[in-house]
Amino acid sequence: MKIGVLALQGAVAEHIRSINLAGAEGVPIKKVEQLDDMDGLIIPGGESTTIGKLMRKYEFMDAIRQFSAEGKPIFGTCAGLIVLAERIQGDEEAHLKLMDITVARNAFGRQRESFETDLPVKGIEEPVRAVFIRAPLILEVGAGVEVLSTYKDEIVTARQGHLLAASYHPELTDDYRLHQYFVEMVRSRSMAPQQL
Ligand code: GLN
Prior knowledge:
The protein has 196 residues and is an alpha/beta fold. It is built from five helices and twelve strands.
C-alpha cells in the first residue's frame, strides 16, 4: 500500500518515516503523474499560501480533487488542513475546498506560537503527542464532518469520510498512531467490496 506525501514544501521526510513505521510505503510526490500509483495522500504542514501557490503552479489542484473524487483518502496536517478546507476565515481565497470546514489560520496567538500536548483523539486509545506550530483551528464543521478531538474547546482533529485533518504536526514525534489511523482508513477503503 502506497501513501504519497505532497513534496512541494514542508515536513515531508518526517511524514514518510511515520507512514513507514505505520506499515505502509511513504512516497514523496513531486509530479501529478505519481498520484496514479497512490492509495492515499498526505498534505504536510508548512505555509499554506506557499503550498497553495505551488499546487496551482504544478497543476495539483484538479489532480488532487480527482484523487478525492475517486474516494482515495487524504490527510492534511497543519497547513495541509488549511489547504483542504472549503472556507478560510477572513477574505482569503480557499484552496482545494474539499472538506466542509471553516478554518482560522495562526489561531493560537503570539505567546503560544508553538507548544506540545497529549491530545485525546476519538478512535485512538491513549492520547496522541501533538506538536502545534503557528497552528490553525477549525471554527465550524458541516453536518458530514466528525470532530475527533478538541484542545481547550477548539476543534483540532476532524474527519469527513475519506478526509482527515489535524491542526498540529503528528509527524514530529515518535508517536505514529495517527498515521496508523490514516493507514487503516486507506486499507479499509482499498478492501471495500465495491472497489474490487
Ligand atoms: N501558519 C501556517 C499557515 O497558515 C501553518 C503552520 C504549519 O503548518 N505549521 O499556513
